[in-house]
Amino acid sequence: MAFVVALLAGVVVASLVAAGSGQSPIPLPEVAGSVLHRLGLDLGPLPTAPRGDATLWTVRFPRVAMALVVGAALGAAGALMQGVFGNPLAEPSVVGVSAGAAVAAAASITFAWTFAGEWTIALCAFAGGLVTTLAVYALSRADGRTEVVTLVLTGIAVNAVAGAGLAFLLFVADTQAREQIVFWQLGSLNGTRWPYVGVVAPFAVVGCLAALACARRLDLLALGERPARHLGVDVERLRIGLVVVVALLTAAAVSFCGIVAFVGLVVPHVVRMVTGPAHRVVLPASMLAGALVLVVADTVARTFVAGADLPIGMLTSLVGGPFFFWLLRRTRRSAGGWG
Amino acid sequence: MTASTALLARGLVVRYGAATVLDGADLEVRHGEVLTLVGPNGAGKSTLLGALCGDVDLAGGSVEVLGRPLSSWRLRDLARERAVLAQEHRVSFPFPVAEVVRMGRAPWRGRPEEDLDDDVVAESMTATETTHLADRPFVALSGGEKGRASFARVLAQRTGVLLLDEPTAALDLGHQEAVLARARARADEGAAVVVVLHDLSLAAAWSDRVALLAAGRVVADGPPTDVLLASRLTEVYAHPVEVLRHPATGDLLVLADRSARPPARPPARLPHGQEHP
User: CA-to-CA distance for A12 and B97, rounded, in angstroms?
Assistant: First the structure.
C-alpha cells in the first residue's frame, strides 16, 4: 500500500516537473499554480514567462497526460498478458501485438480511412491488436500453458509478418503518410494534442478498469487452467475477455504514440519484486509505475539533447532490450533449461 | 446406514485419438467413505478421475454430482461442493505458500463462510505441516512440499467431495500416512473422498472401498479384502503378487512376489511413478 501511495506521489511530482521542463522552463510552483487556478483554486503563482500558461495547456499538459495514459495502459497490458499466458516474458511488443496494432493503424493512415472520424486510427489499432493477440494466443499455447521458447519464437514470427505489413505500407504510402508511419515505428509523444488524449483515454480507462475487475481470477489462473476451473473460474470466458482487454490497452498505447516497447515487460516485473505477485496489487501498481516511467522517459526524450525530440520508443528499447535478455537468462536458469 | 451418493458415473468412455482409455467404466462414490482407484499404469485411473471432475471430454456415458448432471453445475457452485487435487503442482508466479492455500477459499468469497478464511487456512496448513513454509514462494518448494501445500489448498476449499490424484506421490512415508489420515478424517466427517493410489498396501489400509481398474474398465469394486486378491492382482498387473496379513495388526500387505525370481535377473519392482494417460 505504501508502495502504491509512493508511486502516486511520484506520478504527480514527475508530471509537474515534466510540464515545467522544455525549451522555456517554467518553475515548479508556477506549474502547480497554473493547475490549481484552472481547478478554480486561487492558489500559487501563475507562470510569469511570456505565453507560459498557453504553452503549458496547449503543448505540455496534453503531452504529459498522454504519457500518463499510455504508460498506464502499457503497464497494465504487460501485467495482464503475463497473467493470461502464465509467463513473465509475455508483453505486447515482445509477442508482436503492438506491431499488429501498428500495422492496422498505419493502414488507416496510408489509405486515408476516415470511417470513424478521429477515432479511426484507434479503432483500427484495436482491431489489429485483437487479431494479433488471438493469433499469438492460439499459436503459442500447448496443453494449457505457454512455454517460453514457443512464446518468444511466436513473437519473432508475428513481428516478422507485421514488419512485412509495415514495410508494404511504407512502400505504397505517399511521402506524408510515410513520415507519419516512420515516426510511429520509432514511437513518440511529439505533437500530442488534447483531442488525441480524448480518444486514447477512454480505451485506456475501460481497459484498466476491466483488468482490475479480473485481478483475483488472474491469481487463480496462476495455478493452471484446470485448478482455476475447479476453484470456480470460467477459464474460457476469462481468457477471451482478457485477450480483448489486452488488445484495448495496446490500441490505446499504439494508436497515437506508436510502438513504445518493453515498458509492459520491465514495469510489472519490477513491481512484482516489490509487492509480490498478487494481481490486485500488481495491476494498479503497474499502471502507476508505467505512467511514471513514461512521463520520465518522455521528459528525458525531449530534453536530453537541446532542441531535439528523441523518439521515446528508442529509449525504452535501449533499456528494455538488455533487461529482456537478463530475464530470459534468469528464466532459463530457474527452469533448468528451456521450458 | 445407507450413505447418500455423491458422484455417479455410468458407462464412461474416453478416447485419446484412436486409443480408448476408458471403456465403459462405472463408479459410485458415497458420502462418508474413502474410495481408492488402483490399477496398473495406463489402466485409466487418472482419466477416470479426470472424467469425474469434468476435465476430460467424454465420448460416452454420464457423470452426476450430488444427483445433478456435471455439465448443469455452475462452476462456482461446484467449487463449493467439490475440490480436486491434480497430479501436477504448478504455480506461474512466486506466490507465497500461504497465498496459494488461501486461493482455496476463492469459491467462498462474498459469502458468510468468508469470515472463516483465516481459521480455515491456518488449520489446513497445520494439518499438512506446511505452516513453517507459509512465506516461502511455492515455486521454490521441493516436490513433496508442493504436494502438501496443494493438499492444504484443497482442504481449505472445505468441500463435501474430494478428488485426489496421487496425493502421496513424492511424499515420504510419514507424510503419506498423514495425508491419507486427513482424507480418512474428512470422510469420517461425511465427505466423499476419491483417491488415486499406486501403493496397494496404502490403499488397503485407508480405504473403505477399492476400485480396481484394468484396460479402461472397473474390474473389481468393493472392500479391500474382497478386491485385493493375490490371484486377481497377479493377472491385472501381469506380475506375481502376494497378499499377506500383518501378523500383529491384521492389515493387508500387498507385495510383489519375488520367490520365483531367477537369481541373475535385476530386482523386479511394482510399477511406480508418474502415469500418463
Answer: 36
Count the Cβ atoms, other than its own, within 10 Å of residue B215. 15
Count of CB atoms within 10 A of residue A13's CB?
14
**Helix (H/G/I), strand (E/B), else coil: B149:** helix
Does the distance separating the beta carbons of A86 and B86 come in below 8 Å? no
Q: Exposed/middle/buried for B88, CB within 10 Å: 0-12, 13-18, 19+?
A: middle
- What letter would DSSP give residue B241? E
Q: What is the pLDDT of residues A111-124, one digit of tens each?
A: 988 888 888 888 89
B9: which strand partners? B27, B63
Instruction: For residue A321, give how far its alpha carbon lies from the nearest alpha carbon of chain B (Å).
Output: 22
A/B interface, count of CB pairs below 8 Å:
67
The pLDDT tens digits of the residues spanning A263-279 come to 999 999 999 989 999 99
Residue identified by cell 517460453 is: A148
How far, in Å, are A46, A79, A327 from residue A39 at the CA level? 13, 33, 44
B contact test, residue of A84, A147, A216, A223 with most B CBs within 10 A:
A223
Please compute, for residue A99, the number of CA atoms within 13 A of its CA located in the half-sphere on the CB side: 21
- With H, G, I as helix, E, B as strand and everything else as coil, classify residue B11: strand
CATH topology of domain A63-333: ABC transporter involved in vitamin B12 uptake, BtuC (1.10.3470)
Model pLDDT, residue B274: 47
Predicted local distance difference test score (pLDDT) of residue A149: 79
Contact B107 A232 (CB under 8 A): yes
A86 in B contact zone (CB under 8 Å): yes
Picking from A219, A226, A334, the nearest residue to B86 by CB comes out as A226
- Residue ranges in A40-119 assigned as alpha helix (H): 52-55, 61-85, 97-110
Residue B53 and residue A230: Cβ atoms within 8 Å?
yes
Burial class (CB in 10 A: 0-12, 13-18, 19+), A57: middle
- Pick A43 or B233 by higher pLDDT: B233
Q: Which three cell numbers stand for residue A211?
A: 483488468
Asked whether the beta carbons of A220 and A238 are under 8 A apart, the reply is no
Enumerate the residues of chain A whose CB falls inside 8 A of the CB of residue B157.
231
| A162 CB neighbour count, 10 Å cutoff | 23
Is-contact A215 A285, C-beta < 8 A?
no
pTM of the model: 0.87
Question: Are the C-beta atoms of residues B65 and B79 closer than 8 Å to each other?
Answer: no
Residue B41 Cα distances to A99, B14, B24, angstroms:
47, 16, 18
Residue A252 banded pLDDT, cuts 50, 70, 90: confident
CA angle, B274 then B218 then B202, to 5°: 50
Confidence of residue B271 (pLDDT cuts 50, 70, 90): low
Q: What is the dihedral of CA B20, B26, B32, B37, to 10 degrees?
A: -30
* Closest to B100 measured CA to CA, from A64, A282, A278: A278
